[in-house]
Design brief:
The complex is a heterodimer of chains A (259) and B (149). Chain A is of the alpha+beta class. Chain A has three helices and 16 strands. In chain A, strands 1, 2, 3 and 6 form a four-stranded antiparallel β-sheet that branches. In chain A, a hairpin with a 4-residue loop joins strand 10 and strand 11. The longest helix of chain A has 28 residues. Chain A starts with a helix and ends with a strand. Chain B contains four helices and two strands. In chain B, strand 1 and strand 2 form a beta hairpin. In chain B, helix 1 packs antiparallel against helix 2, helix 2 runs antiparallel to helix 3 and helix 3 runs antiparallel to helix 4. The two termini of chain B are 29 Å apart. Classes of the chains: A alpha+beta (259), B mainly alpha (149). At the A-B interface, helix 1 and strand 8 of A face helix 1, strand 2 and helix 4 of B.
Chain lengths: 259, 149
């Protein structure tokens, strides 16, 4: 019985040594894994969406290959609802291999702003949930995740209509100049049109006009919309319906009462 | 009188030898730990309390090694060996939280799935436990045969 017991002992010792060396070297090789996140880029796609692209360079200088490398980014609103999600997957990164991938995520600004008006007019924060997963040395899955806040700048921050100027245009019509001001706090330049419809208190459309807007990132816009309204239809109070038409999003009507 | 002296000398020699053997084994085990720690040291910066946890394991294990060696030649040696195997199993299960090892570092949550390695380690420990039981059975068997002869 002594020989089988000794054999069990030898086999156990051998496997223990193998297991300890393998585990230690696998965990140690994580140290030699280098992840570099490049400069994020934001471009508008042909279908009027925003493409967020983050270059990631993975240098695997460890002892083992990396499998199932994946990066997932989820952008959530303040209530935790998913706005956009992007995922990048690399099946295998061999040892001593450098891989650069672009982690892309498409954000439909139109959808976002239609369902969340506050993002159009108020600066707020978006929550970003970042998950990075991989399997090292065939056996050890690792996952790292973090939550970060990303400030969101409103493209029409502080949108207001100024003091309306009424001047006689002719015997039947008045010229109405409506000043428009806002600040573009968004990370993209804003170009497009503002369309304005003026209604009197009896819901009668008096006139409509539009103006071209061009507000660069982090700049203020100061313009006006000129309307010609019939004197007869004018009332003390009423409302404006404002529509925003830009390549990235369309929004409206924004109802602003006057009088 | 001469026999008693000779017996006590023999016993003292045996105890010294056992103590020496236990010391060598303990030192060897601690050296292995120190060598392995060189690899794991960078990770300990990320995982708080790792060094204390590993050191606690090393201490208990060294104590069991010493006790096992001091009681060698008796059935208690195998009990301590079995205890060593069971201690490894329990320690690994508790310290690795069942194989899913999670650490929070600042705002970063790190999860390492060590279930496969844990399973292998538990199986090896069970093998060690079985070996100790077989050794104990063999020891008792040999002793019984010796008494009969």
């Amino acid at each position: 019985m002594r020989i089988p017991i000794r054999m069990i002992g030898l086999a156990t010792t051998f496997f223990w040594i193998f297991l300890i060396v393998f585990s230690a070297s696998a965990l140690y090789s994580i140290k030699d894994l280098k992840l570099d996140f490049g400069e994020p880029q934001m471009v508008a796609t042909s279908d009027n969406k925003l493409l967020f692209s983050l270059p990631i360079t993975i240098a695997n200088n460890g002892y083992y290959s990396i499998e199932f490398f994946n990066v997932t980014t989820g952008i959530l609103d303040e209530e935790g609802l998913m706005i956009a999600r992007g995922s990048t997957f690399i099946p295998t990164i061999e040892k001593d291999e450098n891989v650069t991938v672009a982690h892309n995520m498409t954000i439909d600004v139109n959808d976002l702003l239609q369902s969340h008006q506050k993002y159009l007019f108020n600066d707020t924060e978006l929550r970003i949930h970042e998950t990075l997963g991989m399997r090292i040395a065939e056996f050890i899955p690792i996952q790292a995740s973090t939550n970060i806040s990303l400030p969101w700048g409103a493209p029409l921050y502080g949108f207001t209509l100024g003091e309306i100027e009424y001047t006689p245009y002719n015997r039947t019509h008045l010229s109405v100049v409506v000043p428009v001001t806002f600040e573009n706090h968004a990370f993209f330049d804003l170009t497009g049109n503002i369309q304005m419809l003026m209604y009197n208190s009896s819901d009668l459309l008096l006139d409509e006009g539009q103006t071209v807007i061009e507000a660069l990132q982090d700049s203020a816009y100061d313009g006006y919309v000129e309307l010609y309204v019939p004197r007869a239809g004018m009332t003390e109070s009423g409302r404006f319906e404002v529509y925003f038409l830009t390549p990235l999003f369309n929004y409206g009507p924004l109802v602003i009462p006057y009088g | 009188m001469a026999d008693t002296n000779s017996n006590s000398k023999k016993t003292l020699k045996q105890i010294t030898f056992k103590a020496l053997k236990a010391t060598v084994k303990a030192v060897l085990f601690y050296t292995i730990y120190l060598v392995l720690w060189m690899f794991l040291a960078p990770i300990s910066e990320v995982i708080p309390g790792l060094q204390q946890t590993v050191e606690a394991f090393v201490m208990v294990y060294v104590v069991l090694i010493i006790l096992g060696e001091l009681t060698s030649g008796t059935v208690f040696q195998y009990f301590f060996n079995a205890a060593k195997a069971l201690f490894v199993i329990c320690y690994l299960i508790f310290s690795l939280s069942g194989g899913i090892f999670g650490v929070t570092f600042q705002n970063l949550n790190l999860i390492v799935d060590l279930r496969v390695l844990l399973t292998i380690a538990i199986l090896l420990s069970l093998l060690g436990f079985a070996k100790s039981l077989l050794q104990a059975v063999n020891y008792m068997n040999e002793r019984a045969e010796g008494t009969r002869i």
